[in-house]
Design brief:
By secondary structure, the protein is an alpha/beta fold. The protein has 2 domains: 2-154, SPOUT methyltransferase, trefoil knot domain (Alpha/beta knot, 3-Layer(aba) Sandwich); 170-263, Trp Operon Repressor, Chain A. The protein is built from 12 helices and 10 strands. Helix 10 (212-230) packs across helix 12. The model is unreliable at 174-183 (pLDDT under 50).
Length: 264
């Protein structure tokens, strides 16, 4: 996997690439991150990348010419098949685990980092193949979102984490132990480790029982319960797995009892 990152702050990524998962993936040859300074694709002596918006208004807008030159130059130098050109933008579609899984099947991804008030719309309309947002909020630039995309995608590349079962069981991923056959998109179940009793807070007995079927059922129930409490919208968008309906009814009764207790 090759990540091309076009930015006016290439130095922003230095520390990110010197620590943790991305550093290990680069060292192992699983990914290559190529940083490109957008100012290198300007043609004026001031290396100008932005200008005032037509129609007035606050802020400055990234000009289209340097961005088009950057992408077209990288395309011309690449022997790869056509690769995604992703504009990081608050107006983009939401980055989800499913989107990350799709991107992880690519061999090259180009990430465009905007700044200031935004990017000339012609970049989104005629150059980028996709627009991605990491959440319903606004940041000062696309560098942090680009780093998030790289992390989310890299950890899905086979062999990077070294434990494919761990990836399969995480929040938003599909896995039989977590959520039942056919169910995807649940939040992860709770995790515990030693000591079994910490300041009087004890690990659930079922996890110490050695009964793998009961542990599997408990984890599935907790994943459903956590998703129901925190992200019920996820449950509405995916079909229930085998046995999930019964567990959901138990969860509803539990929550109803909790509500009655609070009211009392």
């Amino acid at each position: 996997m090759v990540f091309d990152v076009v930015t006016i702050f290439p130095e922003f990524f230095r520390s990110i690439l010197e620590h943790g998962l991305l550093k290990r993936a680069c060292a192992a040859g699983a990914i290559e991150v190529c940083l490109h300074d957008l100012r290198d694709f300007t043609e004026d002596r001031h290396r100008t990348v932005d200008d005032r918006p037509f129609g007035g208004g606050p802020g400055m807008v990234f000009k289209p010419e340097p961005i088009f030159r950057a992408v077209e130059s990288l395309r011309a130098k690449s022997s790869e098949k056509p690769f995604p050109v992703i504009l990081l933008s608050p107006q983009g579609r939401l980055l989800t685990q499913e989107v990350a899984e799709t991107l992880a099947r690519e061999s090259r991804i180009l990430l465009l980092c905007g700044r200031y008030e935004g990017v000339d719309e012609r970049v989104a309309e005629h150059l980028a193949t996709d627009e991605l947002s990491i959440g319903d909020y606004v940041l000062s630039g696309g560098e942090l979102p680009a780093a998030v995309v790289m992390e989310a995608v890299t950890r899905l590349i086979p062999g990077v984490l070294g434990n494919e079962e761990s990836v399969a069981a995480e929040s938003f991923a599909g896995c039989e132990e977590q959520a039942g056959a056919g169910r995807r998109g649940l939040l992860d179940y709770p995790h515990y480790t030693r000591p079994a009793d910490f300041r009087g807070w004890k690990v659930p007995d079922v996890l110490l029982s050695g009964n793998h079927e009961e542990i599997r059922r408990w984890r599935r129930q907790k994943a459903l319960e956590r998703t129901w409490r925190r992200r019920p919208d996820l449950l509405a968008s995916i079909p229930p797995g085998e046995g999930d309906q019964q567990l959901l009814e138990e969860i509803k009764r539990l929550l109803a009892c909790e509500g009655a207790t609070r009211e009392a």
